[in-house]
Amino acid sequence: MGQLLRLTWLEIKIFLREPMGVIGTVGIPILMFVVTARLAGPHFSDPGMPRFMTSDLPVFGAVLTAISAVLSLIAIVAIYRDGGILKRLCATPLRPLTILGAQVMVKLLFTALTLAVMILAGRRYYPVGANVPLASFTVALLFATAAIVSMGFVIASLVPTARFAQPIGTVIMYPMLGFSGLFVPVEQLPPALHAVSRALPLTYAVSLLRGVWHGDGWGAHAGDAAALLVTFLLCAALSAKVFRWE
Amino acid sequence: MRAVAVTPLAAIRIAGIRKTYGRTIAVDDVSFDVEPGEIFGLIGPNGAGKTTTLECAEGLRTPDRGTIAVFGLDPVRDRRHLQDRIGVQLQQAQLQKRIKVGEAIRFWATLYRTSVDPDTLIDQLGLREKQDAWFMTLSGGQKQRLFIALALVHDPELVFLDELTTGLDPQARRTIWDLVRDLRRRGKTVCLTTHLMEEAERLCDRVAIIDHGRIVDIGRPPALIRKHCPERTVLVTLDEARAAEWFAAIPQVESVVPDGATYALRGRADDLVSAVIRCLADRHAHVLDFRTDVPTLEDVFLRLTGHAIRD
C-alpha cells in the first residue's frame, strides 16, 4: 500500500510537469462543460434542447471525463511499454499491479478533481437540484469508471505501439458513446442498432448514471450495475492474460 | 566447450538453458558459472542471445529448458528473496521523461528493505549537478550513470549490466569502466554483456563468447587469445642491410616479411618479443621503430566463429 501511494504521488508530480496532458484531461472537459452549460443554461426547460445539454449534462460531463482520462491512461501505458519503463519498473520489488494501479489512481484523482471543478463551475449556470444524490452518483460513477478503465487496459494490450494508442482508443471509445443513448435515446436508434447498443458497456454506464442522477433507486438499475461489473471482470481477466509488459 | 569449475559458492550457475521465441532459438544449451567477486562478460554480436541469457538470470524471463541458480536460488521462483541481493541495469531502458534524477534515486531507495544513502550515491556517480534535471534532458552517459545508480541503490552483491556503454563517446565509456572496476574493488560480482571486444578485454576477468545462441568458449581474455590466436607479429624498422638474415636466425621467428626498411616478424612463441629484442641488442642495431601487433579478442571471435563481430 505504501509503495502504491508513493508511486502514485510520484506519477502525479510527473503528470503535472506536462502542461498539455493536464489541459487535455482536466481543462478540456471542464471547458466543454462550462461552454455547454452557458449555452444551454438559459434554455434549460426548453423541450427542443437535446437532453445531454440540459438534464443529462452531468452524465455527459462525467462520462466524457472518464473516457478522456482512460484515453490518456491508454496512451501513458503504451508509452511506458514502448520506452521500456514498464520493464524497468518490473525489475524492482514493485508488483505489476502496483505499477498499473498507480496510473489508475492518478487518473481517478484527476477525474474526481475535474468533476468537482465542474460541479463548482456549473453551479453558476446549471440548476442543480439540492436533492441530487451525490453519494449514490459517485458510487455509480465508480462502477462506470471501473468498466471503462478495464476496457482501456484491453485496448492498451492490443495497440501495437504508442503512436496508435490514442487514435485506436478514440476510435473505439467515442463511437461507443454515440450508441450509448446519451445523445439519441436507444429507442430512437434504427432497430438494427438496438442490439449493438445493448452489447456496448457504455450504454449501461449512461443508463445507470442518468437513472441515479434523476433519483432512481439502485433496484431499478441492478441490471446496469451487473452489466458494468461483468464488463469489468471480463476485461480485467482478459487483460491479465493478454497484457504485454514490453 | 570447457567444463566450468564446480564450486558451491558460484554467484550464478547456469546449466543447459534454452529459450525460443516462436521458431527462433535465442539461446541454446548455454552453461556457465559466475564466481563471486569477478567481472564476467557475455560477449558476442547483437542478437547472439546475450540479453536473453542475462534476463533469464535476472528472473525476468523463464528458460524453456535448463536450470539457473543465483546464490543457489531460482531467479523466477525466489524473485522476492533475490531482489534485495541483485541489481539490474537493462539494455535500452528509459524512465518517465519528466522524472528528476534525484527523485528517481530516492524513490528507488524506498522500494528495497535496505538502501545506501541516495546523496552519497548521487555524488559517487557524478550526478549532483543533474539531480533536479528531468530524465529527458540527460545525455546518454548521464542516463547510463543514473541507471547504474538505480542498480546500486540497495547495495546489491551481484550486479547485471546489459550493454552498458553502447552509444556512448569514448570518454563517457571510460568513466563507466572505472565505475564497474570500483564495484569489483568493493567485492561485488558483476555480470555484463557487451559487443565491444575492447571493453570485454579491459574490464572482464572472464568472458563467455556467445554466437547464434551458443557458447563458443569461456575463459580469461589473455588465455583465450593465447589459445586461439597464438601468433604474434613484431614490426621492426631499421637501416641495416643484413637484418633479414639476423631475424631468420632467431628460432622463435617463423617468418620474415620485409617491407622497405620495416620487417614483419611472425611467430607463435610466448618469448618471440624478448627474443627479437635480445637479437637487436646483441647486434647493437640502430632501431628506428619497434611495434608489436598482438591479437585481440576481436581476432579470437573471428577465428572461432568465422565472421567478424559487427557482421
Describe this structure in words.
The complex is a heterodimer of chains A (246) and B (311). Chain A is mainly alpha-helical and 246 residues long. Chain A is built from ten helices and no strands. With 311 residues, chain B is of the alpha/beta class. In chain B, 41% of the residues are buried. Among the domains of chain B are: 144 residues, P-loop containing nucleotide triphosphate hydrolases (Rossmann fold, 3-Layer(aba) Sandwich); 64 residues, YebC, transcriptional regulation domain (Alpha-Beta Plaits, 2-Layer Sandwich). In chain B, helix 8 packs across helix 11. Chains A and B meet through helix 1 and helix 4 of A and helix 3 of B.
Give me the Rg of chain A, rounded.
18 Å
Percent in helix of chain B:
25-40%
Number of helices of chain A: 10
Choose one word for the global shape of chain B: elongated
Radius of gyration of chain B: 23 Å
Query: Number of folding domains of chain A?
Result: 1
CATH C-level label of the domain at 12-85 and 157-226 in chain B: Alpha Beta
What attributes does this structure have?
heterodimer; A: 246 residues; mainly alpha; 10 helices; globular; B: 311 residues; alpha/beta; Rossmann fold; Alpha-Beta Plaits; 6-stranded mixed beta sheet; 4-stranded antiparallel beta sheet; 11 helices; 13 strands; elongated
Structure summary:
The complex is a heterodimer of chains A (246) and B (311). Chain A is mostly helical and 246 residues long.
Which helices and strands occur, and which strands form pairs?
The complex is a heterodimer of chains A (246) and B (311).
Chain A: H1 2-16, H2 19-40, H3 57-82, H4 85-90, H5 96-125, H6 134-158, H7 162-178, H8 191-199, H9 201-213, H10 222-242
Helix pairs in contact in A: 1-5, 2-3, 2-5, 3-5, 3-6, 3-7, 3-9, 6-9, 6-10, 9-10
Chain B: E1 12-21, E2 24-34, E3 39-43, H1 50-57, E4 65-70, H2 79-82, E5 86-89, H3 101-111, H4 118-124, H5 140-152, E6 158-162, H6 170-185, E7 189-194, H7 197-203, E8 206-211, E9 214-219, H8 221-228, E10 232-238, H9 243-248, E11 255-259, E12 262-267, H10 272-282, E13 287-293, H11 297-305
Parallel strand pairs in B: 3-7, 3-8, 5-6, 6-7
Antiparallel strand pairs in B: 1-2, 1-4, 8-9, 10-12, 10-13, 11-12
